[in-house]
Amino acid sequence: MKLLSDLLKKLSNLDRRYLYLMLAIVIAIPLLVPVVSKPLPKPAITSFTKSYYDAIEGVANDPAAKNKIAIVACNFAAGTLAENLSQCEATVRHLMMRKVKFAIFGFSDPQGRELGQQVVDKLAKEYDYQYGRDYVNWGYRPAGASVALIKSAVNDLPGALGKDTRGTNVADVPCMAGIKGVNDVSLIVEIASASTYGVWIQFYQRAGKQPIPTLYCPTSVMATEAIPKLDSGQLQGMLVGLKGASEYELLLKAEGFASSASASLSLSHLLILVLIVLGNLGMFMERKQRALAEGGR
Q1: pLDDT in tens, 25-51
Q2: Is the distance from CB of 91 to CB of 121 less than 8 angstroms?
Q3: What is the mean pLDDT of residues 83-101?
Q4: Has domain 47-254 been given CATH number 3.90.1570?
Q5: Domain coordinates in residue numbering, the chain
Q6: So which domain of life are we looking at (predicted)?
Q7: What secondary structure letter does DSSP report for 179?
């Protein structure tokens, strides 16, 4: 008992720099050695993630959607890469696996179009996707003009957009053949660090003959405010931060960064809980010894 008490007391007074070092090691190991995370329990698939997956499957299995285009709105920047980039990669992978035509687009941050393109470039060879034939990058439009642009795109999508990132008229890009307006859009995916999905819901989702399935990929801290939109049917699915991306990778059977990073998060939380328990035990035992010493006087 004395040995345990002394050990706990030492842990209670441990230099905090050692705690940070332990935390850094626990976070780094699954990222540097992904095989370490294999034995860990897989995340439970939430209904938000399953609905997201099912929505894309529904579009891929719909014969009427074959000649339409999906919009992947990349409205995020380097500050939220850890969450949004993993969501983007898993989404683009799913679209490519199911041979869905899509367009990269951004109106919140100019970095979004470039980050989205980087994801496509990474996966294109694996799934034989070619620019122009299978996807297009519409580029970035200033946030202040986004509402007017999206309203215009209801009836004249190519005209509202003008040119793509390569300077080609959007109407002349092969995968845009026959794409005139809102009725030719099969899916909207909003990958964002803020609640920019409202623009799609308000001005585009229900502007055509049929509502367009709309999906949302927020950072974890932004997810709760979107839950009422899921409950009301305005959003058809959501990936909640890094955890949602790791669940989605599991559904796709294509585990990547999100799966390893999710293991890092789980292990770091476990370490913090263990340290809290040990610290409190040490404090209680120290108080007990002090009380016994004072009572013996």
Answers
A1: 888 877 777 666 665 667 789 999 999
A2: no
A3: 96
A4: no
A5: 1-37+261-295, 47-254
A6: Bacteria
A7: -
Helix (H, G, I), strand (E, B), or coil: what is residue 135? strand
Residue 115 tokens, joined: 């980050």
The number of residues in the chain equals: 297
Q: Which candidate, 235, 269, 263, places its Cα nearest to that of 249?
A: 263
Q: Assign 205 to helix, strand or coil.
A: coil
Tokens of 59: 């579009």
pLDDT tens across 219-270, in order? Answer: 999 999 999 999 999 999 999 998 899 999 999 988 877 777 777 777 887 8
Q: Tokens 């002394």 — which residue?
A: 6
Between helix 81-97 and helix 241-252 the angle, nearest 10°, is: 20
d(CA 19, CA 16): 5
- Confidence class for position 186, pLDDT limits 50, 70, 90: very high
User: Taking the model in full, what pTM does it have?
Assistant: 0.83
- What's the pLDDT band for 95 if we cut at 50, 70, 90? very high
Identify whether the C-beta of residue 87 lies closer than 8 Å to the C-beta of residue 191: yes
What's the token pair of residue 73?
């709105």
Cα three-residue angle 37-121-142, rounded to 5 degrees: 105
